[in-house]
């Protein structure tokens, strides 16, 4: 078992990574302040792990709320079901929420915790690779709006993140690949050595080699924890974690949440960002190709849906949270292992990238 | 014109109080960081003041969203209309929201600002006495849930509060009285001198004497700013501001939001809290009577609705945000000018108070 720490002063918290951690109650019980605990999960995950989590919580006044599974349910209406459950059970301000599931469950539970009675505690038990390497760490919580992804939310840090790598055994291949997209992201934006390791070990990851997965999760969490500690509220470098996300969110919004997995959209977005970076001469054409090849080897898509026009991309990207005084800012690559956030890209080259990918798709 | 300051370090902000301040754009323009401004108001207030506010904002990219008027619309569905407007107009993270209206508009606009893109700026332009003396100051934002009032929200401080006392000219008598309830509250919990002044000047307030109203607003805001500066997140003394609110929220929830005005419910709640305090021998019977008499002179109700049984009160009070480890805590009075938050009240005496008021009502 490994333990990392997200250093945020009073709001610091541990990330535990290991096999079988859902049988180690002491790791989470220390972080529960009072008697009331609400587990939030979904219809896919609850049948697999809810009993074990309830066992860990024996002695507490525990309840659960089970939401439908999928990004299309990450909205204010479904969020309200968590509030219904909390109020029906008369949960007070000292209660603790526990997110048991992937990124959607983690983001919604976190936002419910941020907003219930103006803020209560929560704990993350991520069960997908994507949630384990990215969304469960760092305190970004929220829901989607039909006009934009993650547009309603809060920064609210968990008290603890418990990553039981055994939960990946029940994850399907498509979900596993979606998680690998965010793993590759860390290599691209700040960890050249990790990118090289991924090129050598990608088949072990897709083949679910436990040691390789454990290493990839740990290295991803170390990278994430460092970035979050340096810039909790995304006033600077944290935005680099959004490599591929501006293109990706546009794909998710355009296709209807839940059609593309978040990691799949990010994979395509990273390929597009690499293409645009290469057109600027910042990234070599060879490196753009290496990136594309690694994503494809991970089983990920690298081409946006045929239906999306250039105009639709531009319209949807215009509501991105990184937009500053009406100027779109993008995360682009200087090299493999070095990214920047910039509004100073050439619009004609962005146009070329969108054109190129639209032709590729059709 | 008077200016106070809410001292919260980096999050400090001014409260400007005076007549005709809606014609002083410089007071708010300093607090708008970038070009996009969204004014949130309601169908009653917008026809009266929206044009003047728009004039103050000339040169900005300004839009407005007009919500229906009333506490029954303070919910997640109506909140979503603010997000719709922000996203349709492609508002970015540097935008500013402006709340033009009473407590409902202020609370909802503040929560929209807290949650839109995980947090943007907002400014309060309160137009009711209740909002001017209480809800616009201190950063409590949120919406109601059918099972409990203000159960979903955030602490999010405004950048500035601008109180134009002329807006009270368009306030009806019932709304004015509702605001006076919160004014009386400050006298009761921490300002004996102010309570004495109110006993002498209550007719000037109900008669809308501008000087008396100005003084009452200023003294209320001074009290509120001191309490908030000392305890922003309500870990201690800020809870005293909830005198009468546990009983009052139960009345509002039971009768359906919008039937009773918030200040009316608080008035009745304060009378009940005074009664219960007197039954404990903490407050003299004479002082409980003085309180009741002042509320009645202000034109406020002091008896709960006949329809509410003891059981309904107890059920609804059990979800109060002050509940700690299943124990109800109430704000009670030691004397006029001194309050305490306590779980150590006698349940039999609470029973007597509820019984007494139920008989009174029927």
How is the topology of this model organized?
The structure is a homodimer of 362-residue chains.
Chain A: E1 2-6, E2 13-18, H1 26-29, E3 36-42, H2 46-56, E4 61-67, H3 76-88, E5 96-101, H4 103-115, E6 121-126, H5 129-135, E7 140-145, E8 148-155, E9 161-164, H6 173-190, H7 192-206, H8 210-230, H9 245-255, H10 262-279, H11 285-297, H12 310-317, E10 330-335, E11 338-342, H13 347-361
Parallel strand pairs in A: 2-9, 3-4, 3-5, 5-6
Antiparallel strand pairs in A: 1-2, 7-8, 10-11
Account of the protein in words:
Two copies of one chain form a homodimer. With 362 residues, chain A is α/β, with parallel strands linked by helices. Chain A has two domains: 2-170, Rossmann fold (3-Layer(aba) Sandwich), CATH 3.40.50; 185-361, Dehydroquinate synthase-like, alpha domain (Up-down Bundle). Chain A is 46% helix and 18% strand. Chain A is built from 13 helices and eleven strands. In chain A, the strands form four sheets. Chain A has a four-stranded parallel beta sheet, sandwiched between helices. In chain A, helix 9 crosses helix 10 (262-279) and helix 10 (262-279) runs antiparallel to helix 11. The termini of chain A are far apart. The A-B interface holds A 34-35, 76-77, 79-80, 83-84, 87-88, 90, 92-94, 114-119, 140, 142, 145, 147-148, 151-155, 233, 318-319, 321, 323-326 and B 34-35, 76-77, 79-80, 83-84, 87-88, 90, 92-94, 114-119, 140, 142, 145, 147-148, 151-155, 233, 318-319, 321, 323-326.
């Amino acid at each position: 078992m490994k333990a990392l720490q997200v250093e945020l002063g009073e709001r610091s918290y541990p990330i535990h990574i290991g096999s079988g951690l859902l049988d180690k109650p002491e790791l989470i019980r220390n972080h529960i302040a009072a008697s009331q605990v609400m587990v939030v999960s979904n219809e896919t995950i609850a049948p697999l792990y809810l009993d074990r989590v309830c066992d860990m919580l024996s002695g507490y006044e525990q309840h659960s709320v089970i939401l439908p599974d999928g990004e299309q349910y990450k909205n204010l209406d479904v969020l309200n079901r968590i509030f219904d459950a909390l109020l029906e059970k008369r949960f007070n301000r000292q209660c603790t929420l526990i997110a048991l599931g992937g990124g959607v469950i983690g983001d919604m539970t976190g936002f419910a915790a941020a907003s219930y009675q103006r803020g209560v505690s929560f704990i993350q038990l991520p069960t997908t690779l994507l949630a384990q390497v990215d969304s469960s760490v760092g305190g970004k919580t929220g829901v989607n709006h039909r006009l934009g992804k993650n547009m309603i939310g809060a920064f609210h840090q968990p008290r603890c993140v418990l990553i039981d790598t055994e939960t990946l055994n029940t994850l399907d291949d498509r979900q596993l690949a979606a998680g690998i997209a965010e793993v590759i992201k860390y290599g691209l934006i700040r960890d050249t050595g990790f990118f090289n390791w991924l090129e050598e070990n990608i088949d072990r990851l897709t083949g679910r080699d436990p040691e390789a997965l454990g290493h990839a999760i740990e290295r991803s969490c170390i990278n994430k924890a460092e970035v979050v500690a340096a810039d909790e509220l995304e006033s600077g470098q944290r935005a680099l974690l959004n490599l591929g996300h501006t293109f990706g969110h546009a794909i998710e919004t355009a296709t209807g949440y839940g059609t593309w997995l978040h990691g799949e959209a990010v994979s395509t977005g990273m390929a597009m960002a690499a293409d645009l970076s290469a057109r600027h001469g910042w990234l070599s054409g060879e490196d753009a190709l290496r990136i594309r090849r690694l994503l494809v080897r991970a089983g990920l898509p690298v081409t946006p849906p045929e239906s999306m026009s250039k105009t639709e991309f531009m319209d949807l990207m215009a509501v991105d949270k990184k937009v500053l005084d009406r100027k779109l800012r993008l995360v682009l690559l200087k090299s493999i292992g070095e990214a920047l956030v910039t509004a100073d890209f050439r619009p004609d080259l962005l146009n070329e990238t969108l054109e190129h990918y639209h032709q590729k798709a059709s």
